[in-house]
Amino acid sequence: MDDNYPLLNLFWTMLLIFCWVLWFFLLFRIIGDLFRDHTVGGWAKAGWIILLIFLPFIGVLIYIIARGKGMAERDQKQAKEMDAAFKQYVREAASGEGGAAGGNVDQLAKLAELKSQGHITEDEYAKAKAKLLA
Fold first, then answer.
1. Are residues 120 and 131 in contact, defined by beta-carbon separation less than 8 angstroms?
2. Helix, coil or strand: residue 111
3. Which residues contact 125 (CB under 8 A, 6 or more apart)?
4. What is the pTM of this model?
């Protein structure tokens, strides 16, 4: 058994492991993107999967070159949809559909608006606020 393993071989091994992990990361990203895209038909998806399995490195590079811009656009679209869904959830929770606490938030906002418009005095605002928070 040879215990001699030069430093250059260690770096080469580390580079190969890094490339292997990078390829798996790209492979999973591509497969996820492929199944998220509803404009591509089933046969085209099957073709891409076959290409990625039988020509792994070339298949990944071809996919990134051919559909890389679309990947970024689909990621941005999904991020915007998730952000909009989160904001809608927060609005619903704060508007009263989320229970009594949400209704109180809505009532407090109305009271603050009435006070700022001069329809109620500071004392009336304080009493109504204390009543809501009690």
1. no
2. helix
3. 111, 112, 114, 115
4. 0.56
94-99: long-range contacts at Cβ-Cβ below 8 A with a sequence spacing of 24 or more? none
Q: pLDDT band for position 30 (50/70/90)? A: very high
Whole-angstrom distance, CA of residue 125 vs CA of residue 120:
7
Token pair in block for residue 109: 């906002």
> What count of other Cβ atoms lies within 10 Å of the Cβ of residue 120?
17
Q: Output the CA torsion sign for 59, 51, 36, 44.
A: positive
What's the rounded Cα separation, in Å, for the pair 95 and 104?
A: 9
**Residue 120 per-residue DSSP state:** S
Give the list of residues 6+ apart from residue 84 with CB closer than 8 angstroms, or none: none
SS3 60: helix
pLDDT surpasses 60 at 101: no
- Please write the tens of the pLDDT for every residue from 110-119: 888 888 888 8
